[in-house]
Design a protein that fits this description.
Layout lengths: L4 H11 L1 E3 L1 H7 L5 E4 L3 H5 L7 E2 L5 H8 L6 E5 L5 H12 L4 E5 L2 H7 L12 H6 L1 H4 L5 H10 L1 E5 L5 H11 L3 E5 L24 H12 L4 E5 L8 H4 L5 E4 L4 H14 L3 E7 L2 E7 L7 H4 L20 H19 L8 E6 L4 E6 L27 H6 L3
Helix pairs in contact: 10-11, 10-15
This protein binds zinc ion.
């Protein structure tokens, strides 16, 4: 008569070595290979950090791939210690592994002892549907979409450039969007600032942007900074963000942003527009030039857009803002060739894009130095702006 399941298990457990989770915890980083023999869904719900996954049903076909050396110390575990005992017997008796143990009590006891468990992040069914066109791309996929969801991007301004950038970054699933703006929605904004709407005239731009983003994608958390960015608040706002989208309309704040972002080593995706022309570049501190390397002195005052109201073709900030969003996503995914050390110029009337190389200035007053040596009093040092604008007339 063949033995019952309980008898067989007892017999097997008598022949294999069982080890306590405490011993496994000690062996974790000590040369032993830990193998989880549970089913895929069980492994995905949480496993011992660094464990390899070979479901018991695939032991014979897959263990060689996970543990090629039969003399290697292997510790198997399952939920409670029974399946791993059977698996240990298979490894020893049928597959010739020499140093195999089974963890007592499985991951249940491991957790009871308070040891660490890795829970891989997964997308919900709704997220898999929402981001399905991203998941089909090798360059994005599940891992890339997770990076986007984990990313924290700060938009300076919910205006012409910030509106399209924020909309598309939100749609792409960038998980945290900070917005700095202290303005309210004005009728004259709506020709290009597409995140706002006619019924929100007079509403603060950060509230209006948040409303649109929440309606578009509930995965996105909006952090509102309803202030004007200046030297007193920049070092409080920037830390913690991965990337800054610069849609600023004035040079003094651009220099301030540059100096603070170099000090904090946060890349800035910067765009500027005037009339029918746009410019774009990515300033990644210490990887390429900074804004001061490119513009050691401010451009001539008559070209400074913030010295008064200037005309702009409504779609132009849309084009440039989406190029910014594209660069942001490339940086998050670490894919493609970011626009570092290159200045892209777009002439909408001519339908022409040109590009110039920009080099780091070895004598740059900011990025030629160590970040920690840049003092608070040096941030955004710039000629008096009122006088600067007056020079234009
Ligand atoms: Zn520089």
């Amino acid at each position: 008569m063949s033995p019952s399941g309980a008898e067989l298990l007892r017999e097997i457990k008598g022949r294999i070595d069982e080890v306590d989770p405490a011993a496994v915890h000690e062996q974790m980083n000590n040369g032993a290979t830990i193998v989880d023999v549970r089913e895929t869904e069980e492994f995905a719900a949480g496993h011992i950090p660094g464990a390899k996954h070979v479901p018991r049903g695939y032991l014979e076909s897959r263990i060689e791939g996970a543990v090629p050396d039969r003399a290697q110390h292997v510790i198997l575990y399952c939920a409670s210690g029974n399946r791993s005992a059977y698996a240990a017997r298979t490894l020893i008796d049928d597959l010739g592994y020499e140093n195999v143990e089974s963890m007592l009590g499985g991951i249940t006891l491991w957790k009871d002892r308070g040891y660490e468990v890795d829970v891989p992040k997964t997308l919900t069914a709704e997220q898999r549907e929402r981001y399905s066109r991203h998941l089909l791309l090798d360059e994005v996929g599940l891992e890339g979409q997770q990076k986007l969801l984990d990313a924290k991007v700060l938009l300076l301004g919910a205006g012409g450039l910030g509106s399209p950038a924020a909309l598309y970054l939100a749609a792409a699933g960038v998980g945290t969007l900070g917005i700095v703006d202290n303005d309210t929605v004005d009728l004259s904004n709506l020709q290009r600032q597409v995140i706002h709407s006619t019924d929100r005239i007079g509403v603060s731009k950060v509230d209006s942007a948040e409303q649109t983003i929440n309606a578009l994608n509930p995965d996105v958390r909006v952090i509102k900074h309803e202030v004007r960015l200046d030297a007193t608040n920049i070092m409080k706002i920037l830390p913690g963000y991965d990337i800054v989208v610069d849609g600023l309309d004035n040079f003094p704040t651009r220099y301030l942003l540059n100096d603070a972002s170099v000090r904090l080593k946060i890349p800035v995706v910067s765009a500027a527009i005037l009339g029918f022309e746009g410019q774009l570049s990515v300033f990644k501190p210490y990887d390429g030039p900074c804004y001061r390397c490119l513009f050691p002195v401010p451009p001539p005052a008559e070209l400074a857009p913030s010295c008064g109201a200037n005309g702009v073709l409504g779609v132009l900030p849309g084009t440039m803002g989406l190029l910014q969003a594209t660069e942001v996503i490339k940086l998050i995914l670490d894919e493609g060739e970011p626009l570092i050390g290159r200045l892209l110029m777009y002439d909408a009337l001519a339908a022409r894009v040109t590009e110039v190389k920009v080099r780091r200035d070895p004598d740059c007053p900011i990025c030629s130095r160590e970040p920690d040596s840049i003092g608070d009093e040096e941030l955004g040092v710039f000629p008096d702006y009122e006088a600067f604008c007056a020079g234009a007339h």
